[in-house]
Write a structure and sequence with these properties.
By secondary structure, this protein is α/β, with parallel strands linked by helices. The chain is about 20% helix and about 20% strand. One of its GO terms (biological process) is oligosaccharide catabolic process.
């Protein structure tokens, strides 16, 4: 459909008969109306080895394979409520594992982070990571089979596009005939030229911050700029030193006027890459650090791709709220990360740093853009909800997760293990004990293995707390798929009228969702204590949401955490509805009105 002159990928709901419901094997049918993206790293997701050696290599710690993401695993993911799977780390990236016997050039550990390497240091845009294949020589076919299995489960496939930078040792041996490698025709004697693929630092030699290898030291003369816009031959360990910045025609080191006509060479090379994967059957791209690439490129490239693949989905990672509109309406993206507005605000509320009422200011900052924003509380960059650095246990995130899922109709991201309470507190190697699950190391996650069980992915071996948390996530996602108010309805914030002493606006956030005469009240308690409240619903809200002030209303908490509500509308208008919320819970009340006899 067209929205503000922009082509939006349409979502159709899926009819799935899957054998999954709270791990009870109950057959159910779910109609899916909201985008719910489930992110997973195949390297970790399918790893069945339980020996975790810090800094361990692939032989010691093992590695998940494409084939480990089985039909049963995908049915379980679909049963949770996902509509898409984002496979992170699919494209071949630099690694300390040696696959030279398969004709793949070995990498220098000097420019690899961790034993497994960063999924965002792409080594060959036209190949998949060899360590994810059972048969390395058949690796692309194994990935293509995964695409087929994912589609058969009623799910769509998203992979990463990493357009801003490549691995220092970028070396495509799988590119189709006629595709020139990056840098082949570059003029290395100048720092910038429009059709150079890289930025150079003439007269310098690159010096990695960690010189690990004596056998395969990394040599690079002249030095090239590092991926995070570091124009120095000696980047620090905190820079993206394992990567090289790609040149899209912007003269960062000089003062040349921007010139995008005709299109710079890097634009054309990146378009070929996107078309290559589109032809493989992927359904969308999560575009890494999209904000570091000119919006003019995105407008051109997305337009070219959509002329051949009209439904292709593009999601931008961007961290500047004042650029949201440009990347939506000029760049043509379907969705953008909303880290710096909703995520940051929710985290502050969840940690007690700001009052819950501050969420009103948060959503107002992006008013009119909500349908384009991807909401999340976890991904590979952020600390785990259950980590010691955040909420310590997963159930304390229930109010925040409920608010993120129910405020608007936009897509939602779930990071694998989030729904189980994965803590991210291992010290894996290059990734220290930082509250994140490593993307750099070979490792395994016990809770994922518990969920896998004997290969049927029923979760039979999950601890009770993990099973209960996953049941909450499934219930929440089912509600937003099946209740029209949460996929095509409207939002009404109740905080403006509940600043009185009988409502703890520091710890409780309240709003309504409505559509077609159906009205829902959402209450979230961000406190570690039970909260009593009196909630007012003003006449404007009743008129807007379709409530009638002459009726008596009751509501059952669809999440099952708190007691039902019963109240005359007149009480809600005047003194306020009385109720209690248990600690760290949220309620979704479906309000139904009737006339008292």
């Amino acid at each position: 459909m067209l929205n503000n002159g922009k082509l939006i990928s349409k979502i159709s709901y899926f009819y799935l008969d899957v054998f999954f419901s709270g791990f009870e094997g109950k057959k159910f049918r779910m109609d899916k109306h909201r985008f719910v993206i489930y992110q997973l790293l195949p390297r970790l997701f399918g790893n069945t080895k339980s020996v975790n050696v810090p800094n361990g290599n692939i032989d010691q710690n093992g590695c998940g394979k494409f084939n480990d993401i089985s039909k049963e695993a995908l049915i379980s993911i679909a049963g949770l409520g996902a509509t898409h799977v984002w496979y992170t780390g699919v494209i071949e990236h630099a690694t300390c594992s040696d696959f030279s016997k398969y004709g793949i050039a070995a990498d220098s550990p000097d420019v690899v982070k961790g034993q497994a390497g960063s999924p965002y240091a792409i080594k060959d845009y036209y190949d998949v990571a060899p360590d994810l294949a059972v048969d390395v020589n058949n690796r692309m076919a194994e990935f293509e089979n995964l695409i087929t299995r994912t589609h058969a489960a009623g799910l769509k496939v998203i992979i990463d596009l990493v357009p801003n930078h490549v691995a220092r040792n970028y070396n495509s041996d799988a590119a189709p005939k006629g595709i020139e490698p990056f840098g082949k025709k570059d003029n290395k004697k100048v720092s910038f030229a429009k059709d150079n693929n890289y930025y150079y630092l003439p007269g310098t030699t690159f010096k990695p911050p960690l010189q690990i290898s004596n056998e395969k030291p990394w040599k690079e003369t002249p030095a090239r700029a590092t991926g995070n816009d570091c124009f120095s031959p000696t980047p620090s360990v905190n820079d993206w030193y394992e990567t090289v910045k790609l040149n899209y025609g912007v003269d960062y080191p000089g003062d040349t006027q921007v010139d995008f006509e005709p299109e710079p060479d890097t634009w054309k090379k990146m378009l070929d890459i996107v078309l290559y994967w589109s032809q493989k059957g992927v359904d969308g791209f999560r575009c890494d650090m999209a904000g570091m690439v000119p919006v003019e490129f995105w407008r051109w490239m997305i337009g070219e791709v959509r002329s051949k693949f009209p439904e292709m989905l593009f999601i931008a990672e961007i961290y500047e709220a004042d650029r949201y509109q440009d990347y939506i309406f000029k760049g043509g993206f379907d969705f953008l990360y909303d880290k710096v507005v909703l995520y940051d605000a929710l985290r502050d509320v969840m940690e007690g740093k700001v009052p819950a009422s501050g969420l009103t200011d948060c959503w107002q900052k992006t008013d009119g853009l909500h349908h384009f924003l991807l909401y999340f509380l976890e991904n590979h960059d952020e600390q785990r909800l259950s980590s010691d650095f955040f909420m310590t246990v997963g159930h304390k995130a229930i109010p925040g997760m409920t608010v993120a899922a129910t405020m608007f109709n936009n897509p939602l991201l779930i990071y694998f293990g989030q729904e189980l309470g994965e803590r991210g507190m291992d010290e894996e190697g290059f990734s220290g004990r930082d509250g994140r699950t490593t993307i750099f190391d070979y490792w395994s996650l016990k809770l994922i293995q518990n969920w896998r069980s004997n290969g049927d992915w029923t979760g039979a071996d999950l601890p009770k707390a993990a099973a209960e948390l996953r049941s909450f996530y499934q219930k929440l996602l089912t509600i937003i798929h099946q209740k029209p108010a949460f996929y095509k309805g409207r939002f009404y914030d109740l905080m403006w009228v509940n600043r009185h002493e009988s409502f703890c606006h520091d710890k409780i956030y309240a709003f309504m969702r409505y559509e077609g005469g159906h009205c829902f009240l959402i209450l979230a308690n961000f406190s570690d204590k039970q909260q009593s409240y009196k909630l007012k619903i003003p006449l404007d809200a009743m008129d807007t949401c379709g409530m009638e002030k002459e009726l008596f209303y009751n509501g059952i908490d669809l999440l099952g955490f708190n007691r039902p509500l019963q109240f005359p509308a007149a009480v809600a208008l005047n003194g306020g509805i009385g109720g209690r919320l248990e600690p760290y819970t949220a309620s979704i009340y479906e309000l139904k009105g009737y006339v008292l006899d």
